[in-house]
Amino acid sequence: MLLIVFFIIGAFDLLTDLIIGTIFLFSNRAARAFCDRVMCMHAKLHFEIYKALGVMKGQLIFSVDREKLPDTFIAVANHQTFLDIVALTILLWPHRPRFIAKNTLKTRTPVTRAYLTSQRSAGIDREVTSREDMRIIQKKIQRMTNKTNFSQKTCFIVFPEGTRSRTENILPFKTGAIRMLINHLPGIPIVSVAITGGSSIGKLKGLLKRNPDNHYTAQAIDLHTVPTKKKECNIFLEELEKEINQAKQKLDSETKTKRLA
Questions:
Q1: Domain spans of the chain, in order of start
Q2: What is the CATH number of domain 2-260?
């Protein structure tokens, strides 16, 4: 049953990729607008299907006052599974997500390739080994943050661990991408996001079996103003990592209580 559902989703992805590619030939702006709508619909479809099939129990929590959200902000989250992209697209809507993601995601599935390409998301290599690599990343982020490439309501999403955590432990943050975004968009605030319950579905085989006891949760925690001075910004980013860790631990504790109830 699960294989049939995944086959149907895959066919839908290929059709979406074809439509977006065709529109992109005529108008970049139209392709981006269409892709935003399709990705939100696609994300909701994925999330609800996984819940309905018993792959997981999922909830999205937005603890930030939406009325205080500016038109543009950065979302910083820990990373466990490709489902994080799905969850954050839903959680942060109507702000259009723009991801700083590893290059391989542009070839992983048709819909992620179409989405990341049309939205001018920054595809970067996981390992940065030289100054030239840093200059390339700088150019990609500069292009992504060019105001002609994003709509009025936009959020730039960063997974500072640099890769998915294969366990429920958060990996040490690498803050280079966040600093580049702050430099290119002075005064932009940050929304912290904690994710838990994704490690068991981090690989395809985890999505091909029922696991109703798995509780996947993504929570937008708080909205932060970023300090302008370098030293204060360093301290702020350290505190941000601690906040996400603590929020995840709290979610883990609440999940454990639900399982025992």
A1: 2-260
A2: 3.40.1130
The whole-number average pLDDT for the span 156-181 is 86
Q: 70: cis peptide before it, omega within 30°?
A: no
Cα angle: 193, vertex 178, 161; to 5 degrees? 60
Three-class DSSP labels, the chain: CHHHHHHHHHHHHHHHHHHHHHHHHHCHHHHHHHHHHHHHHHHHHHHHHHHHCCCCEEEEEECCCHHHCCCEEEEEECCCCCHHHHHHHHHHCCCEEEEEEECCHHHHCHHHHHHHHHCCCEEECCCCCCHHHHHHHHHHHHHHCCHHHCCCCEEEEECCCCCCCCCCCCCCCCCHHHHHHHHHCCCCCEEEEEEECCHHHCCHHHHCCCCCCCEEEEEEEEEECCCCCHHHHHHHHHHHHHHHHHHHHHHHHHHHHHHHC
235 falls in which pLDDT band (50, 70, 90)? very high
With b for 16 or more beta-carbon neighbours within 10 A and e for fewer, the 165-188 pattern comes to beeeebbebebbbbebbbebbeeb
Distance of CA 34 to the CA centre of its chain: 19
The whole-number pLDDT of residue 204 equals: 60
CA-to-CA distance for 140 and 196, rounded, in angstroms? 30
